Every structure is written in C-alpha cells, then in structure tokens.
Description:
By secondary structure, the protein is an alpha+beta fold.
Amino acid sequence: MSDPKDNLPAGYEPAKIWTQKNAYGGAFGSSNRPVSGATFEKVLPVGKQPLQLYSQGTPNGQKVTIMLEELLAVGHSGAEYDAWLIDIFKGDQFGSGFAEINPNSKIPALVDHSVDPTIEVFETGSILVYLAEKFGAFLPTEQRARTRTLNWLMWQMGTAPFVGGGLGHFYAYAPLKIEYAIDRYAMEVKRQLDVLDKHLAKNQYLAGDEYTIADMAVWPWQPGSLFGVYNTHEFVSVQEYTHLMRWYREIAKRPAVARGRLVNRISDKPGEFLFERHAASDFNAILPTPIPGA
C-alpha cells in the first residue's frame, strides 16, 4: 500500500463511502455529476432528411458522420441526414429532448424517421451496425469477415476510454497534471498503437482486404484523436508506428472521410468545421472541390 503522505493531495485516503466534496473545474468540470437525466427542458429540432443526427465532431461523432458520408458516396440516398450540433462543452447533452433519445447523455444519437414509429439509436457501435445492416454496406455478411469486423469494432469501443477519458483527459483537460495518471494511460495507449501497427503490417484494413465500419470507428480515435483533439501525437511518438500511419493516411484521402470529419465540428479555423449539415451542398462553401450534383 502507498504511504498516505505520498498521495495526491498529500495524506489523502479514500473514504469508506464516496461522496462528492470537491468541484475541480476543468473543461468538463461543470458536466461531471454522479446522477443521470436531463437538467433543463429543450425540444430537439427535426429537419427534412430521413435520418436525424444529434452530435458533435469529436472522435465519437466523426465515426457516424464518416459512415453516413460513405453511404451517400456509394449511392444510398436514404442515408441523407440532418446533423444538429450538440455542444457538450455547454452541456447541450443534458437537454430533455436529447436525454430522451439517449438516457446516457452522450453524443452521438440518431433518430431514423424513415420508419414508423421512428427508431432511436445511441452508442456509436450500435449506430454503425444499425446503418450497415439497414443499407447492406460496410459490414460483410460472410461469417468470418463479419466476425473480424465486429472484433475490431468492439475493440475500439473498449479501448476508447483509455485514449479519451484516460490519456486525453489527464494530458489535455484535467485542471492539474498528475504524472502517475498520465504515465498509466500513455503506456496503455502506446500498447494499443502497437496492437494496431502489428496487425496492419499484415492487413490493408482492420478486417482484412475490405474497408468496413471497423476502420471508420478506429480511425478518428487511434491515431486521429492523438493528432487532433488531444494533441498527444508527439508525446506518444505516433509517427514510429509506420504501418498504422500508412493505414491512417490512406483512409484520410477518402473524400467521404474528409467530409465526415468536418460535420458538427467546433473550430475557429476556416475550412475545418461545419457546425450543422442538412444537405450535401453545405460542404461546397468550405471544401476546395464541390461535391458533384450538390
């Protein structure tokens, strides 16, 4: 056991029963709470498209918008969507309308209005599988290939808390720097990158030779979030994972990925964000190459 005098703060020992005593602040300090449910009343907007997405352009949000843009790119017009910004830094996720769709109050959430009654879908893995099965795309039907795809999809869902809530939070967002926490999560993130690098040394994509929802799920997180929202790429030496970087750059060249990563994104850099998306033509104002037919 550690000596309490070495703990942070010095002398700290966990109580027998936890109760909230401190408000630590930081980027998400005001939204962290030990209970669920809405904190204010707000009806969600509904647009004209078959699919209504309520999200923000975080790594989790990008998974779904990349999928939707990929579906549209291969001709699935039923995947047209309205993307409404849910600003998690302002606590929009705790509005009554959003909490009704996703009781866990985490982005993204999707409502399918092409069916009656509508279907609400939350958790990104569930949304990706729902869309893949609805449109018959990016999820192989052959058992072995399907299983490989789902293996990596579930792997991503299990590893994301270490990248975001772990390294990302303590490195970029926490109100104080804790060496033990940063070391703990940096080690785990590097292990994850090594897993991917060794696998991609033998495979073009995560499930083999076919681009799938597994690639769409992992790409924004490992290593996307390390270059982007958390800015930890140099800290964990992302460039040394050459096979992972080959895969990352190859997927980044896909036009649908370039579009999807901009949707519901908050930025002050022109051309790097599209707060809301309601039609393909919305991209024409920010992308150098207009979308054909938009």
